[in-house]
Amino acid sequence: MAKLTFTRLLGIQLLVLTAAIVMGWYDDHPSKHFGEGRVVTYFSALQLLVIAWICQKIFKVRNGLWSGPVLRAPHLLWLLIAAGFVFLALDESLQIHEGLDKWFHRVTGLEETPFTDRLDDVLVLSYGVIGLGILLLYRRELLRFQAMLPLLLAGFALMVLMVGVDMLTNRKEFIQRIAAADTDPELLASWFAVVEDAIKVFAEGCLLLGFRNAGLIAADLGAAEPSVERPAPAGDLAAVAPARRTTDGGTSYPR
């Protein structure tokens, strides 16, 4: 896990994205390999599954240092995150959220409007809101892993940007309005789809590296073999003090 650096992950992402664009470009359809059942979708799902794997490893390490009931454990956060990312990987592979608006119109019999056509975007945003709510609920545990927070925020920001691009380009009217006279609107829409999915891949990369940092801190906590934790009294600030790397490569823990 420590070998997964920013440079290496970015290189892998750029390689996958470039290969997908080149293969689609030969068919005059740049986003051809970015859709359902295509290589970029599966690569995205793989990144999400790696995050889930890291989080369940963190849960196992933290659970080994806990003597109270698991349901009261602050590190239950990591199990919830792992389950959430498994669901997101399934959603990415099966395109669950993208079929929501079609299902809604078929069941209700309503005519498609610019608002109802964006129900899938609303669902994606709701995923983020639920995730933020869980992080706030378990903020004591999260504060132990402050090294992951900047990357986590960057990942959320990119996800919001991705949803914004999707909402803007979801309707053909917008594409036709901004397309130049000699530009094929379908080709322009295809390029916007590439941009949207590229932002998504980079956002997942930020999250992956952030959780990688959390995994390294958790490994240090486990290796130090501190005394078994017990549920901290409410308002105990020492319980949320983060572990920090020392200058000699060790780890400093709150007393």
Structure description:
The structure is a single chain. The protein is mainly α and 255 residues long. It contains nine helices and two strands, in the order H-H-H-H-H-H-H-H-H-E-E. The chain has helices spanning 6-25, 39-63, 76-94, 100-108, 119-137, 139-142, 149-169, 172-178, 185-224; strands spanning 244-245, 251-252. A two-stranded antiparallel sheet has the order 1-2. Strand 1 and strand 2 form a beta hairpin. Helix 5 runs antiparallel to helix 7 (149-169). The longest helix has 40 residues, at 185-224. Residues 233-241 and 244-251 have low confidence and may be disordered.
How do the helices and strands line up, and which of them pair or pack?
Layout: H1 6-25, H2 39-63, H3 76-94, H4 100-108, H5 119-137, H6 139-142, H7 149-169, H8 172-178, H9 185-224, E1 244-245, E2 251-252
Antiparallel strand pairs: 1-2
Shape: globular
Average pLDDT reading:
81
**Strand content range:** under 5%
Strand order of the largest sheet: 1-2
**Structure class:** mainly alpha
Question: Span from first to last CA?
Answer: 28 Å
- Gyration radius (Cα, Å) is 21 Å
- Say how many strands there are: 2
Uncertain residue ranges: 233-241, 244-251
Main sheet properties: 2 strands, antiparallel
